[in-house]
Design goal:
By secondary structure, the protein is an alpha/beta fold. Helix content is about 45%, strand content about 10%. It folds into 2 domains: about 180 residues, D-Maltodextrin-Binding Protein, domain 2, CATH 3.40.190; about 250 residues, 3-Layer(aba) Sandwich (D-Maltodextrin-Binding Protein, domain 2). Bound molecules: calcium ion.
Length: about 525
């Protein structure tokens, strides 16, 4: 589930503007009056070539000044979003396009299972030979990163997509109102019990100084249930999905650690230490920080640190800083939410594409130094300038009054999670010091997992897992919500909960996970 969360968090900005698909007519429109690119240091074709691209456009996409136009200058190949004015569901649009054989040339998808499924149906072509012949940069990466090659290879041995590969090590961590701690003469909590005591002090001792007991000591990240709770239970060495240890795949929610975690959180909820609307509230950071009400949470470093500047005027003294994860009952400080390479998103070549060779060369362009820079930082002169051989963001990114940095960069089509290799510096380039300090605290503290297991399902397993995990997750979320809200005690309901999971196919799910994990270990 962590995997899903990361993928979702990264792709949200890319998918919030879902557009319908109209590949064929767009293709005709697109092939007119293009003159050859002007630099052509990565020339792919003599005549300008237009490829249509089925993907959701970034929210405020700049039609005139974007990385695909810039890439055309170098490659003579132009990528155009194949979209129409009619908004529609992407997967439905794609299914129609596949069945009518009216597909765009290049197709974006956001999950490995979609690539495999469409590949098996013959809608996407195998890329293995094309990579070997026409994509030296991608090939080099895959040769050096066998885990990635393994992950993107379908059960039939074919590679159906070039993945988006995330970079960097941290994702989220603990944040606390340092100014409240200072005011109450407290130190950042070092253990779970100390965290509890700090939360109690936040609740009872009026750190926001308005004379009312209106503080909400611990607040969540918003819906759904698994996001809200998964952020907190890591310190108990618990998780909402599978854990892997000593050669075994174990479903986390059936373990004692999980039981302890939920029991503890249910008790804290009862004591009024946790947001009473934790399972329904959205925009939690805006609400709790903007109104000077919330004391502690667990969330993304980059965005969370940004609220200090956003509310510097309205909440004087606001100091929401990262803190080390409180140690679990085993004495270990750990952070389970780390950033993986993800590999869910990327792009494929459709079976109706008449230029697979040129398309693969074009894919490879994004893995050259220039292409990778553009995919990460955007358009030179607009979003960044080269300073001492390194890209530095312009004010359009750093001081934009309407767009946060990540969205300003996305107006160029950069960071839209197509098949390129992310460069962590793209994010470091706009983060404030609080975010960077927090990330370094977690990296240098050794709190992150040493290894992130990436199991690969066979095509058959993939189908079963998607059915089983959906029903099991629903049961898990309903039960956790019931327990935290105090509608049933964890002790009274736990055995029945595990029994329910088994009825929903947990044993089969675990067997699949175990087999996949054993293949991973080999
Ligand atoms: Ca108060």
């Amino acid at each position: 589930m962590k995997k899903v969360k990361r993928a979702l968090a990264y792709s949200l900005a890319a998918v919030f503007c879902l557009m319908a698909f109209n590949g064929c007519s767009e293709k005709k429109d697109a092939s007119e009056k293009l003159e050859a690119g002007s630099i052509l240091d990565h020339k792919i074709t003599d005549e300008p070539l237009v490829l249509t691209y089925f993907a959701s456009m970034p929210g405020s996409y700049d039609e005139e000044n974007n990385i695909f136009k810039a890439a055309f200058e170098h490659t003579n190949v132009m990528l155009k979003y194949a979209i129409s004015e009619n908004a529609g569901d992407m997967s439905q649009q794609l299914a129609v396009a596949v069945s009518s054989k009216d597909m765009a040339d290049v197709i974006y998808q956001s999950s490995r299972s979609n690539f495999v499924s469409y590949g098996n149906q013959g809608a996407f072509i195998p890329l293995n030979d094309l990579i070997d012949k026409y994509a030296p940069n991608i090939k080099k990466y895959l040769d050096e990163n066998e885990d990635v090659r393994k992950y993107i290879t379908a059960g039939d041995g074919n590679i159906y997509y070039i993945p988006n590969i995330l970079d960097g090590r941290t994702s989220s961590g603990w944040f606390i109102r340092q100014d409240w701690l200072d005011k109450l003469g407290l130190k950042a909590p070092e253990t779970i019990d100390e965290l509890h005591d700090v939360l109690v002090a936040f609740k009872n001792n009026d750190p926001n100084g308005n004379g009312k007991a209106d503080e909400v000591p611990l607040f969540g990240t918003g819906t759904p249930v698994r996001f809200a709770i998964n952020e907190f239970i890591g310190i108990f060495d618990a998780e909402m999905g599978f854990r892997y240890e000593n050669g075994k795949a174990i479903y986390g929610p059936t373990t004692e650690n999980f039981k302890t975690a939920i029991k503890t959180l249910a008790k804290w909820y009862q004591e009024g230490l946790i947001d009473s609307e934790i399972f329904t509230r959205q925009n939690t950071r805006e609400y709790f920080l903007g109104n000077d009400l919330g004391g502690c949470t667990h969330n993304w470093f980059g965005s969370t640190a940004g609220y200090n500047t956003m509310y510097a005027n309205s909440v004087p003294g606001l100091k929401f800083l990262a803190m080390a994860p409180p140690a679990g009952y085993d004495g270990i400080k750990r952070e389970k939410n780390a950033r993986s390479k993800s590999l869910q998103e990327g792009w494929a070549i459709s079976a109706t594409n008449e230029h697979p060779e040129e398309t693969m060369k074009y894919f490879d362009y994004w893995w050259t130094e220039e292409g990778r820079r553009a995919a990460n930082f955007g358009v030179e002169g607009k979003t960044y300038n080269m300073v001492d051989g390194k890209p530095e963001y312009t004010d359009f990114v750093l001081k934009n009054e309407e767009l946060v940095p990540a969205d300003a960069i996305r107006t160029t089509g950069a960071q839209t999670n197509f098949g390129y290799w992310q460069d962590w510096n793209y994010e470091a380039g706009y983060l404030n010091q609080i975010a960077l300090d927090g990330m370094n605290l977690y990296i240098n503290g050794g709190y992150l997992p040493e290894e992130i297991v990436m199991v690969v399902y066979t095509d058959e397993e993939e189908k079963r897992v998607s059915t089983l995990s959906a029903q099991i997750t629903t049961c898990l979320e309903e039960t956790v919500q019931k327990w935290i809200l105090g509608n049933e005690s964890v002790d009274a309901g736990f055995d029945a909960f595990v029994e329910n999971l088994n009825k929903l196919g947990l044993e089969e799910y675990t067997a699949i996970e175990q087999a996949a994990y054993e293949r991973y270990l080999k």
